[in-house]
Amino acid sequence: MAPTLYMLDASPAVRAVLMTAKAINLQLNLRDIDFFQKEQLQPEFLQMNPQHTIPTLVDDDGFVVWESQAIMAYLVEKYAKNDDLYPHDPKKRAIVNQRMHFNTGVAFFHMRNIAKAILWYYESRVPEKERQGAVEAYGFLETFLDGNEWVAGDFVSIADYSLIATLSTLNTVVPIEYDEYPNVVAWMVRCESLPGYPANKKGLKAAKEVFKIRMSKH
Fold first, then answer.
1. Of 16, 61, 156, 190, which sees the most CB atoms within 10 A?
2. CA 150 → CA 106, 121, 164, 188, 199, distances in Å?
3. DSSP 8-state class, residue 30
4. What Gene3D superfamilies does the record tag this protein with (predicted)?
5. Buried/exposed 161-186: b ≥16 CB within 10 Å, e otherwise
């Protein structure tokens, strides 16, 4: 039986997992969670994940794990035919981990705060503090990609899937300018050719539409 992923398409974190699964040809049983209806607060969901976050994965043996990057690493370790996306080499893996922590602590941190401001607090503009944080994240990523095709070096990793899910969404509210971040823009174009990337498209479109609707109401 396929692992079950509790999800919401528009979430960048969910899309990172979906892209990883597609890249390793893993079929997932997808279960949508409606946050606006607070389905994540139902007792049966809280029993699985007391932090009531998505994505949450339940494997076919009942094992439960949440947080997208933990899920991605787990899926590659258990189901991928090789370690290409998450190398066993300690130095390569350390860089992949660092880039994913960068996503969590910097890029996705600002993306999440922007989403909260617009979707939950009905602000019509991106808060300036978060806009500046996003721009700083673009600058860091521009440096990471200097001389590298992919975020962790010369190979595609789960860090690329994690960051492209975030950056493609962040770009809709804080546009990435080619003149300032040519490495980032070129990397984003390369990511569109990755085998897992199609799994990003539907949710990204949904996220764009939600942001547009909420920001146009003011």
1. 16
2. 18, 35, 11, 10, 19
3. E
4. 1.20.1050.10, Glutaredoxin
5. bbbbbbbbbbbbbbebeeeebebbbe
Q: In what helix (H) or strand (E) does residue 64 lie, and over which residues does it extend?
A: strand 64-66
Cβ neighbours, 10 Å, residue 215: 16
Q: What is the pTM of this model?
A: 0.95
Q: Give the residue numbers annotated as catalytic, written as ranges.
A: 11
Angstrom distance (rounded) from CA 144 to CA 148: 7
CA separation for the pair 63, 48 (Å, rounded): 10
pLDDT at 217: 63
SS3 4: strand
Summarize pLDDT for 22-75 with one digit per residue, the tens.
999 999 999 999 887 888 999 999 999 999 999 999 999 999 999 999 999 999
Cα separation, 91 vs 14, in Å, equals 27
Q: How far apart are alpha carbons 8 and 174 in whole angstroms?
A: 22
Which of 162, 137, 125 lies closest to 13, judged by CA? 162
Q: Which two tokens stand for residue 113?
A: 């705060």
